[in-house]
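Page 42, continued from yesterday. The earlier attempt failed because a stray header line got pasted into the input along with the sequence. Redoing it now with the clean sequence only.
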Amino acid sequence: MASTTFLTLPSGRRMPQLGLGTWLTPDSLAPEAIKAAVDCGYRHIDCAYFYGNEGALGEGIEKVLKEGRVKREDLFIVSKLWNSFHAPEDVKPACLETLRLLRLDYLDLYLMHSPMGIKNVKGDLLPQKDGKVLLSDVDYVDTWKAMEKLVGEGLVKGIGVANFNKCQLERLLSVASIKPDVLQAECHIYQIQKELIAFTKSLKMAFTGYSPLTSPKRPFPPGKLDPKNGMEDPVVKEIAKKHGKTPPQIMIRFNIQAGIATIPKSENPAHIKANSEVFDFCLTDDEVKKLQSLHCGARAVAWDIVGMGEHKHYPFKPQESCK
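This time it went through. Structure tokens are written below.
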């Protein structure tokens, strides 16, 4: 069974440490993935409008609720506001559309998918000209203020951010009326996020690490920061053999043991179940140090395609921007 361990959020609510990632899950397999996850104990489901599969995920969520496999109050459903909808007037309609697709009355957590706004062009989530995305200059602080209103209206229970750097998070905190519950960012053996995790913990915020298995099937052109497939790493394989576990289970346990939430993605029922079997063993201090030593700053999701890296709020510049 999946974890019954939780992280306490600034809002006082609790978020299950292990969640199901859904990026790249095909529509045809999404409902069964939800069923498989719920049946083996997952209660945290991570979604996003940009993934393009919220309708199919909503079908699965509605089905498990109707069948009585789980109660709505026991689920923790997360979605994300896409970059196209950063203008304050676009925030609520975007949230309502996600709720319609997921067939829900409220979200447990709504994240700003990134600090970078782009132009809102109907029917195109990555509008481009001459091969470069059309950027907008909407300030993420203004987007956040609009997201705060969603809490007051009962559309979301909590709000947070994703893919922010430390300076951006500090700037947001300086003006926020509602403190972010969560920072979600890439986190795995090659990108351990030691400083960012420590910073969020110092603020009593929770951290969710995505791509814990290094996203070997990511659909991007090759990049200079691409990680290796961590599941093939000799260090990981050696530790897995010692514990009688699989390499993915070692990598998921690495994040869990760091005191963060993590959201491995799979649509394969057997893999979903195996990914949940990470609470019956512990990595030793020496094993954790060996895995931490693999850190090299790699990023499976560098957010720099089609000119996004030129955005004034791009979060992963060599010198973090406080803009």
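Notes: The chain has a mean pLDDT of 96.
Reminder to self: strip header lines before submitting.
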